[in-house]
Here is the input.
Amino acid sequence: MKPYKEMSREELLELREDLRKQYKAMRGLHLSLDMSRGKPCIDQLDISMEMMDILNSSSDLTCEDGTDCRNYGVLDGLAEAKKLIGDMIEVPAENLIIYGNSSLNIMYDAISRSMTHGVMGSTPWCCLDKVKFLCPVPGYDRHFAITEYFGIEMINIPMTEEGPDMDLVEKYVAEDEAVKGIWCVPKYSNPQGITYSDRVVKRFARLRPAAKDFRIYWDNAYSLHHLYEDDQDNILEILEECKKAGNPDMVYKFSSTSKISFPGSGVAAIATSPNNLVDIKKQLGIQTIGHDKVNQLRHVRYYKDINGIISHMSKHAEILRPKFEIVLNKLSEELEGLEIGSWYKPKGGYFISFDTLNGCAKAVVERAQKAGVKLTAAGATYPYGKDPEDCNIRIAPSFPPEKDLRTAMELFTLCVKLVSVDKYLSEEN
Here is the structure.
């Protein structure tokens, strides 16, 4: 089929009638499928179940340095847990603090601490007239929700195939002291699956911020979440690059095992410079006596070392890869050449980013939901939920079974076609 924009009005009307019949038939299936979030599926959760047998009532819960994990203490996490997570994100163990299960919680704490007490002695953000954050878009809605919650002004930074538009990043950071941070998902970005190039990482490391308390919020959520064993993205280690560039304190690097072991009971960490660690521990020591050391020990004894995690992640890839291929193949089969949408083909991560014709994303999501398939809300990948072009949709393939995913993608591509035809016909009137 030729591109829709090359069709005559009569051809478009005939096509719309056929698509409406197909859509009516799909609605008659009474589907109830949820693809709104990147939740691991049951099969992914099941592969970690042996971890539950690692510790029991007769286990020795003494860690390597003699600490009894049942008791209070160890504010920054077990040494062996820091080593395991440090190897996972390529950071020395001494640069980490281990928290509970959620890296998002650590990010929230970092923003909250900056608001009330400042960063390393700087003026608390709540005392400033304006605080701004840079937001690569499309991006992660939960990042944006944190800064919106604290009343921080968010500025869109377009993503390129190499990462954020660094010309814009450098300009804002250098010229505006109110810019205090930037959200980043540098590897297999959410939702596009883009990995920052070496050039982009080095430009980040060489930033010269007007604000001394500017920080890069580097969410390393998908560091080992490859789909293919023989075709994987790699990325420069940002803390090391910042140290080389004379900016050792500029980065907070976040990570967790949420999509490695169990989302509800993994372990999370922040890696940063010694100066930042001292600053963070001032607050942390008031907030808690220590996080769940038994869970940290469970993870260490189950995975043993980085090789154990890598082996485990290959099992995740075996489950996720066919689902990503179902989505990508369906997009190619149904939409290739029609010029009514575009998409990335990620090598890892949890999402596939799809761009409709301008002004069509909300209508596609609405039509899909009416027929029983719930997608991430259109606009969610932009600050304030406002996509200026109304074109980006985040597809989350991980949770549905493969059979349901095929059905969902059949409906999705049908909705894209139908909404696109309506757009071209409306423009002719």
The longest strand covers residues 153-160.
